């Protein structure tokens, strides 16, 4: 499984345009994004960690008046972001080694963080904290329970992993975040398990 986890970046590099086509522009996440944005000051800078092609989530953040810095490990995804939003701040970077030297009012890791192995997920919480301004909101998706799930994308195995809810809560608390909302396999959001927290 560790081997499959290390193939994630290559998979998204090979299939960036296909992923963007499959993803489309339908915003199933709108209700959760509105909850996230409600915790932010007007115009707050948002760090989108694993931004993909910036469609539709990046677009929604921008259209709601937020300056978005998007990072993705696949340069091809970043290329799509730059095509769509040439004035944006889009950077090819591995979230595991992220060190931008600035803090954001909001941090988002939607359908990205859960591609990391469990140990790498645990190590991400100090990374979140180091990029969070006072009172910042953090939202990410996970699996519904501890374990690994494999699916297929364009004929290739696609790795997902999750810690259990108690461990996510402990990691958030240890890094100064308080859980504001949480849903397991939200039926109104395509079955996503969502965490929304705020830096205390």
TrEMBL record:
Domain Methyltransferase: start-end pairs: 46-135
Protein's name according to its UniProt entry: Class I SAM-dependent methyltransferase
CDD domains: AdoMet_MTases
Molecular-function annotations in GO: methyltransferase activity
Signal peptide (residue range): none
Lineage, opening ranks: Bacteria, Pseudomonadati, Pseudomonadota, Alphaproteobacteria, Acetobacterales
InterPro entries: Methyltransf_25 (IPR041698), SAM-dependent_MTases_sf (IPR029063)
One GO biological process term: methylation
UniProt key word NAD: no
SUPFAM superfamilies membership: S-adenosyl-L-methionine-dependent methyltransferases (SSF53335)
Pfam families: Methyltransf_25 (PF13649)
UniProt keywords, alphabetically: Methyltransferase, Transferase
């Amino acid at each position: 499984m560790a081997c499959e986890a290390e193939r994630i970046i290559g998979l998204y590099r090979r299939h960036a345009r296909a992923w963007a086509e499959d993803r489309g522009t339908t915003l199933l996440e709108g209700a959760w994004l509105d909850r996230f944005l409600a915790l932010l000051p007007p115009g707050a800078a948002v760090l989108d960690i694993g931004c993909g092609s910036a469609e539709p989530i990046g677009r929604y953040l921008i259209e709601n008046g937020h300056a978005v810095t998007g990072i993705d490990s696949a340069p091809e995804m970043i290329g799509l972001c730059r095509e769509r939003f040439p004035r944006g701040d889009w950077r090819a970077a591995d979230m595991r080694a992220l060190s931008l030297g600035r803090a954001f009012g909001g941090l988002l890791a939607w359908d990205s963080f859960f591609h990391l192995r469990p140990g790498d997920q645990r190590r991400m919480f100090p990374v979140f904290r180091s990029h969070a301004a006072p009172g910042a909101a953090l939202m990410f998706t996970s699996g519904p329970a501890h374990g690994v799930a494999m699916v297929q994308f364009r004929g290739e195995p696609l790795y997902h992993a999750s810690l259990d809810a108690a461990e996510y809560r402990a990691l958030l608390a240890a890094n100064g975040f308080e859980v504001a909302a949480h849903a397991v396999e939200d039926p109104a959001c395509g079955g996503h398990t969502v965490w929304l927290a705020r830096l205390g």
